[in-house]
Amino acid sequence: MIVSRPAVRVPLLCLLLTLSALPALPAAGAAAANGPAAAGPAAAGWTAPLSTRGRYIVDADGMRFKLISGNWHGASGTWNGSGDDADDANHHAGENAGRVPLGLDRAPLAEIVAGFRSIGLNSLRLPFSGEMLHDTRPVTDAAVAANPGFRGMTPLRVYDEVVAAATAAGLAVIINNHTNTTRWCCGVDGNERWNASQSTAHWEDDWLFMVRRYRDNPRVVGADLYNEVRRSVWDDPNWGGGDDHDWFAASQRLGDRILREANPNLLIIVEGINWTGIPVDGFAHGRPTLRPAATLSHTLVRSGKLVYAAHFYDYTGPNHTGATGVGETSDPRYRDLSRADLAAVLYRDAFYVGAEPGRHFTAPVWISEFGVDGNAAPGSKQRDWFAAFTDQLVQADADFAYWPAVGWAEKRATNGWALLHWDRDGRRTGPYDGGDWRAGDWSRLVTSAARTGYIDPVPHWSMLSPDHGDFVQSLRMRDRPDWDSGARKAVCPDGQRLLGLAHTGNRGLCTDTTAGDLWAPSAAHQVVTDERHVTGDWAGGYTKLQCPSGSFVIGYAVRGAAVSSVLCATATTALSGSGRTVWFDRGDNRPAGNPGGDFATGNYKGQCGADEYVAGIAYTARLFSSRTPDALYCRRLT
After folding, report:
1. Are 458 and 514 a contacting pair, CB within 8 Å?
2. At a CB cut-off of 8 Å and minimum separation 6, what does 532 contact?
3. How many CB atoms lie within 10 A of CB 623?
4. DSSP class of residue 548?
5. What percentage of the chain exceeds 70 in pLDDT?
6. Interatomic CA distance for residues 285 and 277, integer angstroms
7. What are the beta bridge partners of residue 586?
8. Any idea what the Cα angle at residue 213 is, between residues 127 and 6, rounded to 5°?
9. 3-state SS assignment for residue 217
């Protein structure tokens, strides 16, 4: 959920440096539940596993699978953090989930899952807490009153049953590490970062445990690595800073570990940074969201597995925490923006990732949390915002997940957020049962025209960023001994070739455009550290590292800023095209349109054409030089 959950949730990390906690937001809430089955993507069959092609998620047959999802919360915690956790009054909006997905006290599991299908969902985002995995206390009988077979189970075992039932009904399930502790999110509460109240190693171990647990269930399709990374009282998270608050590095490392060690088929879902800075007028503060990905994007060891995610609610804003009173600033909330301004902000902060093809950051964008108070009055800004926001989702053909899917009927008057709600007798009501003003917008979302059918494969563009250490994204090379000990190494994902390099900063750009996978299946790699393979003086007066004939550059190593070696792979086909030198020591030298996007912001960059490959790298070893790359030797593929 976003900084503050759709409902009474502590306002997003309002930490004035002098404050250690924030007041709760006004209650928001439950909602409706029953309704006629919606036509559309939810009813269609699909074949696991899922992967990505450009901005689209596709199934194993290459058919578009648009995530039309709901958030089924509860297992990550509903306790507000004070008072007796057995008392409903101490839980978010008075809804005590009992450490399991909300509603299992009111209706049989199969009926709840049927409710999701009835409103058009084809997938679930299923939050859990790190603490839940280790909680050995059996759930209370009251928490699973409508599912007596779950009595005596641990919360994790109940979670297992929920996953099994949802996937058996054809829903795709994305498991989401929502919190570290089993309590409501998202304030200054020990859940601000993946390592706010635990070590990064513990977080990674928990994730590998969860992924392996559901590895044999192909309809568990994704891992949403952490929810709403944000500032603690004193510290901001960052994207690429290289310290223990670096969300880019942490998510990159865990995503690679999941794909290598636990399940190569999962989608890896990375949320943007939800908040940095001090929410006080005059101090820097705001939501970076996915803006940093434009210049530093993830490159996973398996291409076609990355999905980016972002959250939006009306009561928050580009620079507004969502707080009311203490911690509130004079910045506009999203609901205060005009339609044009809202569209511009959404594009800048999230939608650009999927809207700009052929970039290193291009990926599907899942709006994995959004929602609105179903009690909003006619003519209110909340209603206007929801209509405008759903218009943007429809226009962008965006994947989405509503928060929350389930609520308690008796709390609806004060917490009107949920789409489906159940009363104590197990009766379900939903957006199509009358009286819910959101019905039209919801219906438009799940039935609107969208891209369907087969999605053609697209070239991959991948960024190499050995900023603070090795960035070896080749599975082949990770399985082989260190090829340049002591140097920082960067290698393209399997099947891609190096096409661009920065003069300073050490970043690179890889692709499989035009030629596809050129790597010979079993060929050994070659490490080049001298000029023995140089053919012709293509960079007079400069030291040249050139691959042997019939091979091409897939990686490089640096010591400090200096080039140390290049890594070459043998090609599957003959490489005999003509060559040219691309200098970039005094300015950018890239093809028109900068294909692949800006992979080294602020630094000079050189890049070969789409019909070329890098055969060599040149640098100068003159006195006082830093031995950084100065030129590429680009050769035609044929």
Report:
1. no
2. none
3. 5
4. P
5. 93
6. 4
7. none
8. 0
9. coil
Residue with tokens 């434009």: 294
Q: Which residue do the tokens 């709600």 mark?
A: 421
Where do the domains of the chain lie?
67-447, 461-636
Pairing of strands 56-58, 51-53: antiparallel
Q: Taking a C-beta distance cutoff of 8 angstroms, is the pair 260, 475 a contact?
A: yes
In three-state secondary structure terms, 130 is helix
CA distance 613 to 514: 10
User: How far is Cα 286 from Cα 237, in angstroms, rounded to an integer?
Assistant: 12
- In the block, tokens 């009251």 appear at 142
More confident residue, 8 or 427: 427
Nearest to 195 by CA among 271, 127, 246, 262: 246
Q: Are 567 and 477 in contact (CB under 8 A)?
A: yes
pLDDT in tens, 452-461: 999 999 999 9
Model pLDDT, residue 187: 79
Q: How confident is the model at residue 23 (pLDDT cuts 50, 70, 90)?
A: very low
* Residue 489 token pair: 């190494």
| CA pair distance 205, 408, nearest whole angstrom | 34
Reading the block at residue 210, the tokens are 């969860």
Q: Check residue 238 and report its DSSP letter.
A: B
Q: How far apart are the first and last CA of the chain?
A: 51
Sign of CA dihedral 32, 38, 41, 45: positive
pLDDT tens across 149-171, in order? 999 999 999 999 999 999 999 99
For residues 289 and 309, give the distance between their C-alpha atoms in angstroms, rounded to a whole number.
Answer: 9
The CA-atom distances, in angstroms, between 183 and each of 13, 75, 441 are 15, 9, 31
Rounded CA separation 225/160 (Å): 18
> Tell me: domain 67-447, CATH 3.40.50.720, correct?
no
The alpha-carbon radius of gyration of the chain (Å, integer) is: 26
b or e along 56-75 (b: 16 or more beta carbons within 10 Å of the residue's beta carbon)?
bbbbeeebbbbbbbbbbbbb
Q: What residue type is 462 in one-letter code? A: S
pLDDT (tens digit per residue) in 292-309: 999 999 999 999 999 999
Q: What is the pTM of this model?
A: 0.93
Q: Is 521 exposed, middle or buried (0-12, 13-18, 19+ CB in 10 A)?
A: exposed
Q: How high is the pLDDT of residue 17?
A: 29
Residues 293 and 306: their CA atoms lie apart, in Å, by 12
Mean pLDDT of 254-275: 98
